Amino acid sequence: MRRHLRAAALAAAALLLLSACATRVDLPSKDAGLRLRVQSSVIAPGNGGELIAADALQPGDILLTSIATINSFGIRLGTFSPVSHAVLYLGDGLIAEAVGSGVRARPLADVVDEEQMVVAFRVPGLDASGAQKLRAWANSQVGIRYNTTGVLLNAPFVLNRRLCELPLVPSAVSHYCISGMAMVQLGASRDDQFFCSQFVLEAYRRAGLPITDADPRWVSPADLLHMREGDVPSIAATQPLRYVGHLKYNPPPLLAADGP
């Protein structure tokens, strides 16, 4: 029996080392003992989630999506995540997003129709004034070019930084490692053009409610997913995002299972 337990423990440790998921150790409390938390990508209706209608959204909600394209699959594979794109909900059935053709605004219904999965998160503390600032800035950026250089630099950064996320690495050490690596690898990226998650984070920064203290150029859609309540973020959030629900859930078969 002990041999089987030891083998199971070694197998679990090997999986953590290979995946290099972000981890967090919760110290013992009066209600629970020592606990190791591991970053998770699982969230789905029937598994801690629910399907919602568009009228459940509020201006400023962040939509994370995936679509059945080679580019989307590559992003999800590279970031070990079920999402590949981030969208900002403006209200009145409209969204803003940064795509290959640049920043654009379009109907939410088009996003739900095209994507395989659309999941919504909410930033706590966003009031009507903040939402108005966010919308105004997002609309003023329509037509701004896509940050192609930022995306190309971000891809190797996402992979290389997993060395900073080895199991049981203290949060302070991991943060220092990721920050140093980002400054070296992403320093040439522009901050006046945007890729999808960079655009969402910049909108919140301009509204006076930054989601993270990290540079928006460091953050991928997968990072936003892990900034939700109950998960372990690779890049710290100022406060966890609240899950609102799925507007659509139809994940590709290869990505339906859990992964870091």
Automatic annotation (TrEMBL):
Keyword Zinc set for record: no
Keywords for this protein: Signal
What domain of life is recorded for the organism?
Bacteria
Gene3D superfamilies linked = endopeptidase domain like (from Nostoc punctiforme) (3.90.1720.10)
Q: Which InterPro entries match?
A: Papain-like_cys_pep_sf
Give the range the annotation lists for the signal sequence. 1-22
Matches recorded under NCBIfam families = PRK11479.1
**Protein name as it appears in the record:** Distant relative of cell wall-associated hydrolase
Which species is listed as the source? Variovorax paradoxus
Q: Source organism lineage? A: Bacteria, Pseudomonadati, Pseudomonadota, Betaproteobacteria, Burkholderiales
